Every structure is written in structure tokens, then in C-alpha cells.
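This week, study the protein below.
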Amino acid sequence: MSMPTYKVIGTRPVRHDGADKVTGRAIYGADVQLAGMLHGYVLRSPHAHARILRIDTGKAQAFPGVMAVVTADDFPRTPDRIVDLGEGETPLSCVRGNMLARGKVLYRGHAIAAVAAVNMHVAEEAASLIEVDYEPLACALTAPDAMRADAPVIHGSLRMKELGAPTDTPGNVAEHFRHVKGDIEKGFAEADLIVEREFDTATVHQGYIEPQNATALWNNDGRVLIWCSTQGAFVVRDVTACVLDLPVSQVKVTPTEIGGGFGGKIPVYLEPVAAMLSKKTGRPVKIVMSRKDVFEATGPTPGSHMKVKIGARKDGRITAAQAYLAFEAGAYPGAMVGPAGMTVFAAYDLEHVTIDGYDVVVNKPSTAAYRAPGAPNAAFATESVVDELAQKLGIDPIEFRLKNAAKEGTRRADGPKFRKIGCVEVLEAMKNSPHYKTPLQGPNRGRGVALGFWFNVGLPSSCTISVNSDGTVNLVEGSTDIGGTRTSIAMQAAEVLGIAAEAVQPTVVDTDSVGFTAVTGGSRTTFATGWAAYEAAQDVMRQLKERAAKLWETEAAGVEAAGGVFRSGDRSMSFAELAARLGETGGPVVGRGAVNPRGVGGSFAGSIADVEVDPETGKTTILRFTCVQDAGKAIHPSYVEGQMQGGSVQGIGWALNEEYWMSEQGAMMNSSLLDYRMPTSLDLPMIETCIVEVPNPGHPFGVRGVGEANIVPPAAAVANAVCHAAGVRLFRLPMNPPAIMEALWKPGGKSSQLVPRNP
């Protein structure tokens, strides 16, 4: 089936917010300045696990320049209830407990109290005067440690949910779920070869450049006004209202520009604290986290312990797959093990599957989403085992995956059945890519491939479009723009209206100025808010046809529109000409769109990685890297390519260097960008991209979200490449030089097979 021909979609216009961002005029959270503004500072725990015996704020309150101090006791103690955090629900008590500790601290960096003062230096010095008496407790830092029978209990009230049912079982496991399809024992009995391995991944951070921030004004009329860098202004509004025990109408959130998020700027940390300080002082208060606080007190992605067992016949057909997934939730329940269970085997058409997932609390910061949360961990395990199976069976790794690839009609173990998907097309594009067809030559070099899936989400979005007399339109939306979504949304409206993308002026507004819009996350924004823009543009076109009919004294049903031109019989008028005459036909035209789309189309992505391993140091160099991804329909190909490249780079960092280096006492020892090693341009080749387009039948333009699937396979592809280069397979991320050297030199290692760089 041929793709429709579009005028705007598929082109590459300059992004609407580009000029302000490259000239430094864009307003980010820390740029907000209000008259009479105070500065806040948050005191944080030096312990990973301890009882709070006493908090004395007297010296801080008496310090010159200090205007207010708050602790958890200053906040309303309303009954607990479940609140929506944008990408999941959690008890309000967990939100409040993470915001300011009460009774116990559960990780190093846990917020204890906050100070508002005339400047940030006074606030910080005053915070150091707050006296806190602790009773240190033993800590548990990994899922296996926290699951031991003798592990310290982090939440005395926590009881495990077992297979969907509440239990009286205390401990650190919040939930155990299981997905079953077929008969796993029967499937393994049919296998000629079974590979079973255990894997571990370290905690990693999203690595956004801009730290969390919030400015709040508790106004004299009782309304709370907030400015912050967030992926979801309505989530901030709703959570803040819950914490402060206010109706949502009393909280207005204005999202500023955002310097990266990747899921980490969905949770609420500072906004209610700044608001309470403002209430106490009667003045606006701004709090900006330090980089150390970002690492130690915001939500990283979970560390994990996994076991994957897969059986296959000699012909390469997988007969059974089993996974055990234990993920660190951090201090409060909510590990990303649910999505991991949904995606761990989703790329394959399997008859017999069992998946067990465990949500485990540990003494680390409460985890947050990070670009396809949980899926990269799971893919590292699954794709490593798949690669080993292909290697032992003597089958090309892509051909092995093609033999087992998910297709339309394939049912995942967690229940959903795939509609039209591009898994096979992605694999075919990988196999036919110039990268895969080019032989890899030289000693200590290896090539690895991997496949990944992300299901994407829909969720509510709203949009309005007003027509200007000069033939342009103003588009108002509520989705924070992280990756150019102003433009990708404007382009969908422009396509419907038949005008240029440049004729649409998109604006991201506050929570009072647009209907409810869910977070920028889950690869939903271009899909869902784009659909809202599509509906708003359709509404505009219906009204404009009526206006043209008035001018021509005919019926609206007889007016047609195509390519920005309205026609009825032998009469025609351009969009701009009709816009100029709206005053003659009834006045302004405003269209609206409000959607909660269900036609979400998941996205598949594949990675091809070539590496060289230095046998003398264990350093891994990425020689070449290609990302292949199904975009459904690429609205703005440059932005799709940028998402693919960004996700690939983050996945490479996850594979080779990034981790929270924790002491036995639960202190992060590398909480700076000097010591937390993210890849730079000097570490990487240009990431090659290949966009596959298998239109999503659930969207007017065939869109599939593309922000997340690309981070799923890179770590696994690099791991497979390292294995083929060094002759040893690593089962823990990151695969940094010490880890590689340890694997090479331990008994059974392959160090003798590597060629010295300078023989």
C-alpha cells in the first residue's frame, strides 16, 4: 500500500523555538525573576537509612536574612489516597514522604527541611545550622540484598502484593506479578538448546543538563502560582494541590523551557516546598537544585537483577522463554519493573512464556522514568541470551531474530495483541543496511546487534487554534516541548489547514490557558497532542467552509478545501484570502481539539554496534553505530533522527560507563558530572540512522512515538559486540574497563586471544 502524499508532513522546517534557544533568550526555570523574590535551600540527609529523633530549626530561623523554615510538620496531614504521577499512580503518603522526610530518612539526600532567605548563600548557610539527631540504621542497596530474609526493613507498614492480591507479608518487596502464556515446561522440553544467564545493571541517571527548579508565589488571593521546568504542568498542578490540600483550581503552573528531562522531570520535588515557604513569607520563593542534589535526590532509573532462560530448536525457532526481573524501586514502591515485564520478550512471537517481576524498595533515591523505563534493562538480558543462542546454533543473529519476530496478531505474554507493527521491517532494514553489509576487519573488534520494543502511550491532550487575519494561525497547547514537539504538532495542524508550517505559531501555555494535557513522556506528544491539533484544525476547516459558503451564498456542504484553497463550483479563495474576510462573515474562528486516543502504535528499534576492545586497558571504542527505528510516519525526519541519535548515545553511556558508584553506607561517590561519566562527542562516532515507516493505523497520519524505543537495544548491542571482540560475555552493566579486564583475566577468560595494540 502506497503512503499518502503530504505537503508539510515529512518536510524539515526550522523549529519555531530555535531562534530564542540559540540566542539565549528562551526562559528556563532558573531564569524566572519576580519582584521581592527569596531563595530557598533544602537540607538533605547524610544517611541512607536512619530514624529522625529531633529537628531543631531555631538557629536557622534566627540567622540574619532568613525569612522562613519549613519541615514536614508544616504541611497538611490529610488522609492517604492514590495520586496520578503522570506515568503511574502512587500513594500520596509516598509523594509527601519523598518531598520532606517524616520519621525516617530512606536515602542519602532525602530532604529534611527547607530555608527561604534573601539570597541562596544565606539560605544554604542557615540550613547548615538546622540540628538533626539521627539514629543510623542498616541499609539495603540492591534488589537481591533487600529481598534477603535478614534485610533491614525499610517501610514497616509495607506488605507485598502477590499476583495482584494483597498479603500480610512484610519486607521490602512491594509487589510480585507474573505473566504466563502457554506451558513453559512443555516449551523447554521441545528445545534442542537452552541458555540461561543472570544479569545485573547499575543505577543510572537521565543526565539532563538543567537541574530541577521551582519558583512559587502563594498569592494574596489564596492561589498558588508556580513556574518550573517540568515534563507535565498538569501533574505538578495536581500533585501540588494534593500535598497542600487545595482544589486544583487554586494552583496555576506555568511551564518554562526545559533543559532535558527524559522522564526525570515528571516527579514533583520542590514545588510544594517552595509554595509553603512562600505562604510563610508572603513573597515568591525560588529553589534550584545543585548538580549533587540532582544526582542524590531525584529519580534515577532502577538498578536490576535479572535471570533470562530461552530455549530453541536447531532450526532457530524459539520454543520457550522465562524471565525473573527484580528491580530497585528506590525508597518508595514504584520500580519500572512493570514496563520491563511488558517488553522483555515483546519483540518475539513466542508460544510459551513466563515472566516474574518484583518491585523492591532499597535505600536509594526513589526511581523515576528514564526513556522507555525498564525496557533497556530487560533488553540487555534478553538480547544477550538471544545472541548467544544464535552464536551456538551457527545462525546469523539477524536471521535468528527474523525467524522469531513478532508480527501483526502476535500476542504478548502480558496480554495485548499486536496490530500492524514494523518489527520485521526493522530487522530487514538492519540486514540490508550499508553498515551490516560492510565487513568488520581488524583484531579485537566485534559487531553486535540487538532489537528493542516500546509500547508507547496515548493519554489526554488538548489544543486550540485561532485564525489570524493575515492567514496565519495561533496554536495553543499544553505539552512541554523537549524534542521539537512545537514544530511536529504545528506541522500536523498545517497539513490539515493546507498552509505552511511557518504559518502556524505554536505556544506552550500554563494550566489555566488550555485543557488538561498529560505529560510529555511515553512517546505520546507528537502522537496525542498532534492528534489534538489535527482535531482542532479539522474544527477550523469546518468553520471556514461555513464562512466561505456565506460569502458565496451557498451551502457549506458544497464547499471543498484542498491544499489551502476553498472551492465551490468555479469560485475559489485561498486560506489567507478567507482569513482576511472573517469580519464580514461572523468574526473570529477558533477551533478546539480534545482527545484521549486509544490507537497507540508501539515502536521497534534495532542497533548495530561495531567496537574495538583494548586488551591492555579494557577500554571499549565505538567504531560505528547504526540505529534503525519504525516511526510509523516521520512528521519531521530531522527530529526523528535526533531522537534516534540521542537515545543511542544514552544507551551507549549506559552500556560502557554510567553508574551510581555507591559506598557500603549508601553514599553516592560520583555525584558530579566529572565523576559520573556520560559520553561526549569525543567518545562517539556519528550515529547513523535509518527511519522505517510502517504507518500506525490508529493515528490520522500513521504516527508512532519515537522518543523511547531507540534507547532499548543499544546496551545489548554493545554488550554483544564486546563479546565478539574480546571473546568473553559480560553480564553486568556498565562494561567499563575494570569490568572487562576482570572478565578477561579471570579463569576461563580469553585474554590470550586478544592481540596487543603495539606488539
Remarks:
- The chain has three domains: 18-25+458-595, 32-137+206-297, 304-456+600-753.
- The two ends are 57 Å apart (CA to CA).
- The CA atoms of residues 384 and 716 lie 6 Å apart.
- The longest strand covers residues 318-330.
